Amino acid sequence: MNSARPIYPFAAIVGQERMKLALLLNIINPLLSGVLIRGEKGTAKSTAVRALADILPEIRVIADNPFQLSPDDEYDVYLEIEQALNGQPPAVSEPPVAASRKVRVVELPVGATEDRVVGSLDLERALKKGEKRVEPGLLAAAHRGILYVDEVNLLDDHVVDVLLDSAAMGVNTIEREGVSFSHPARFTLVGTMNPEEGELRPQLLDRFGLCVQVEGVQSVQDRVAIMERRAAFDEDPERFAGEWTERSEMLVQRIEQAKALYPRVTVETTILFEIAQFCLDVGVDGHRGDIIILKTAKTLAAYEGRTQVTSDDAQRAAELALPHRVRRQPLMAIADNAQALRKNMMVGSPQT
Amino acid sequence: MFRTVYPLAALVGQETLIRCLLLNAVNPGVGGVLIRGEKGTAKSTAVRALASLLPEILVVRGCAFSCNPERIEGLCSGCRETASRKTDRRKVRIVNLPLNATEDRVAGGIDFSPAIKNGRRALSSGLLAAAHRGILYVDEINLLDDHIVDIILDAAASGYNRVEREGISFGHPARFILIGTMNPEEGELRPQLLDRFGLCVEVTGAQTSEERVRLMKRRDEFDGDPQGFCQRFQSQSETIARQITEGRKILPRVRTPDHLRGFMANLCMENHVAGHRADLVLEQAARALAALLGETAVTVEHISQVAPLVLAHRSRDEQTPPPPPSPPDDEPEEDDPRREEPENENNHQPRSQNNQPRTEEQNGPSPEETPPEGRESSPAPNEEDRNFLIGDTFKVKRISSSKDRLVRRGSGRRSRTRIAQKQGRYVKSSLENKSGDIALDATLRAAAPCQKNRRGKSDLAVHLTASDIREKVREKRVGNFILFTVDASGSMGARGRMAASKGAVMSLLLDAYQKRDRVAMISFRRNDASVNLPPTPSVELAGKLLSEMAVGGRTPLSAGLSKSFEVTRNYLLKEPTARPIVIIITDGKSNVSLGERKPLDESRALAAAMARDERVKYVVVDTEEDGIVSFGLAKQLAAALGADYFKIDDLKAEELVTIAKGEK
Q1: Which of A8, A30, A123, B606 is least buried, going by the fewest C-beta atoms within 10 A?
Q2: Domain that residue B296 falls in
């Protein structure tokens, strides 16, 4: 990841506004719990996610801690984990060294095995010293970061179960291979998929906060722009990235500002009712939809520098948060457009 | 554990769910609760919130099995030997069993660290030990591996966990309350496991916008300031905790009047409950409720309040004589259509008499046979019964169960070959030495006791010999391949018949979806059979194709059969470990042959030849109506194929969980 070759800058991606917005909102507010990007091949899905690495904010972590714990909020967790690992608490006299680094994008390859994802017995340690030690897996690495799964619908079923488990609880519990251990694992789940190759399981679908549909850009000008930029990037990645540095930094700043503003964003009760009514009209399972819409709307307001959520924010949030939550008839395709769906439902024509 | 947990008192709605949890907290005899419901309805949140409210119990200090010092006869061997037992008070634990747990951690095994270092044979007690006198909590319990389920069932049934493995033999009491959550969309539970749960509660989202708004507000406040939020609910949480503690104190004094026992027994009988657990649980639950309310005598009111929770997952339809609660594995070969009345959701099933095979469109007399919509009695607990132009769908049990059996029976064979691919979940280890997929932990445990005698020259701490090597046994739930061979000839086009057949296929597809099988579809009509859908995991695609499938023409059954054979053979070449299931939906007629022979004879011969491949399982779904004249041709075909034979109606599941869901 930190190789010399620069990545294609996020700011330089042409079009795909909804996808970019969904990703940015998730960076601003990790509680949105991720985004599912559905669409055909070659629509900058993966490029966008990888490009995030550039604009992600910094977080404080305990240096060399494989669990990405925060020295501020998670100090007691740190003590607990050290105790579990070493059988004794770390010396209080030497507090852990704190470091600052960017939020990470951890990639979960489709072929990953379960033990690599959740963590397993440390082979070397077991053989050399006869000790049981946990070798942390990808979930540990993804704590407080982004877990990115390309082609998430092709993921092995077992791995999906594990993801469900830890995405729901924010904790990864290992009870296998003689090891008993748990550590926090709160991550933003970002998945891409091509619906032609099969759908996601409903339970996993629901774990993604937002869902966007992407398709190829339809205007000739934009397509030309894509080709030009791509060519320029391939020719001299560094220079290209350099040209976009300024814009990337502006984006970073905007994210930081929105993050700071978020706790002060307020919502009026009428808007809450609007959201609830929307969910009822469309027919959403459970309450995660409502909650995500509210959070998304607040994040949107913060992103645009406002402290008051408007009705428009709520509408836009619903469009991002509902498509994959609408109660589907079995095997029905996922709705592209929550608004249209609502209208249909309101008219009351029995849809098939 | 690591994060401030959303307090139970702050949940909006879900009174029944909370009540169930409290009943269990007051009286462990209630026997746990299964929480079923759609996603995002605070299932897991509620259970985790319960942890902080649980009362304290007295345990022997340092005992891994949480022995109760006040009951000498229940002590573990370790505690019995130590004369001076010190005691501790601690909260009742909630032990979380993650889906990917391996057998050694659930049941317990040898702890290799001390064994290797000091040659001491120490036990590492498992989750069942930790859960003794506490709560064992399994999120998404319907996704739990069968191996693990077996262990849990065993321990739950006897209240004792016995470990005989890796050269050790020990046992300890394991009485725990089982709490599970599940989303029925992902598949149902094994009946045996289902019955273990004392109570079952169905949760749904709030339906009024006021409640939803309240919920959003609370959640938002909680996310903004978790600690402050919990403090605001502090006093309410304490009230609940006190209620539990008080209830536990009163419980031993709560009496059930004798005349109410009869009432309870009647209640169970009226609901056609299998077995006697319901009666027992009902009494315990009623007592728990009385205790929770601070009363010392059970009343009718208490009983009727808890009865729905106890009976929901146990009551059966009246039409069925209560069969013994058997796992779906032992599936009897029954051909008689059961449960005639309630399941005629397939609206049009006129008695068409397609006795003349060549007739293209011969309609049955009338739709007057059309039975009323049996929606309510439809067994599907989720929204699966919709009309797609495909006929109504229903929950399939039979096929799936036989499929289950296939998986489990074949599991030895399957897993071994699977191991070569090193895919799937590592569930346990075995001595077999074939694949090179070494289970390090098990190997170390095997080697550990011998380390003392093997101290050698190398700088490794552990000395392994070939006899220590253990290999992983992996289980993979994916992997059935289902081929649908659908008769799309004119004879099927008779009114309603195709709709019903399509409904059946759709139901099977839904089932396949839940089990994540690969599907393929072949249809045959006119002179030929064609592969509509090559093997794919996309059940959606199959569903779409199904709805578009055209009907008409003659019936080339032989062509359909040979095409099926071709497809399965190719699939088997690619994946030799697969055990395909071919489901043939037909009325058994045949009037076009491939060669010179008579169509019917040819198809029989073909079927007999196909039956020889033991790897393929055949299922024939007969679409012929029970009319005045019925030929039973499909039955003969099934016999030739060695196939399971079903009428469409037979496919419908006898749903154990018939939770009455009011249609909104």
Answers
A1: A123
A2: 254-311
Kindly report, residue by residue over B105-118, the tens digit of the pLDDT: 888 877 777 766 66
Q: How many CB atoms lie within 10 A of CB B514?
A: 21
Tell me whether 0.90 is exceeded by the ipTM. Answer: no
Under the banding of pLDDT at 50, 70 and 90, the label for residue B290 is very high
**Domain shared by A47 and A111, yes or no:** yes
**Cβ contacts of A77 on chain B, cutoff 8 Å:** 2
Rounded to 5°, the CA angle B437-B439-B441 comes to 160
By the CB < 8 Å criterion, does B49 face chain A? no
pLDDT tier for residue A334 given thresholds of 50, 70 and 90: low
CATH of the domain at B524: 3.40.50.410
Residue B509, amino acid: L
Instruction: Report the C-alpha gap between A120 and A108 in whole angstroms.
Output: 16
Same domain, B150 and B266: no
Question: Which residue is closest to B125 within chain A, CA to CA?
Answer: A178
Range of the domain at A164: 10-57+103-214
Separation of first and last alpha carbons in chain A: 47
Mean pLDDT of all residues in B250-259 = 88
User: How close, in Å, is residue B385 to chain A by CA atoms?
Assistant: 9
Measured between CA atoms, the residue of chain A closest to residue B185 is: A202
Residues B266 and B197 in one domain: no
Residue B139 inside a domain? The answer is yes
Q: Are residues A209 and A275 in the same domain?
A: no
The percent of residues in chain A predicted with pLDDT above 90, rounded, is: 7
Closest by Cα among B123, B134, B137 to B173: B134
Is B259 found in the same domain as B191? no
Interchain CB distance below 8 Å, A203 and B186: yes
Considering only CB atoms, which chain B residues are within 8 Å of A86?
none
User: Bigger pLDDT: B447 or B584?
Assistant: B584
Q: What is the pLDDT of residues B395-410, one digit of tens each?
A: 554 343 333 333 333 3
Q: Closest Cα partner for B282 from B30, B22, B33, B36?
A: B30
Give a yes or no: residue A243 inside a domain: no
Q: How far is B86 from chain A (nearest CA, A)?
A: 23
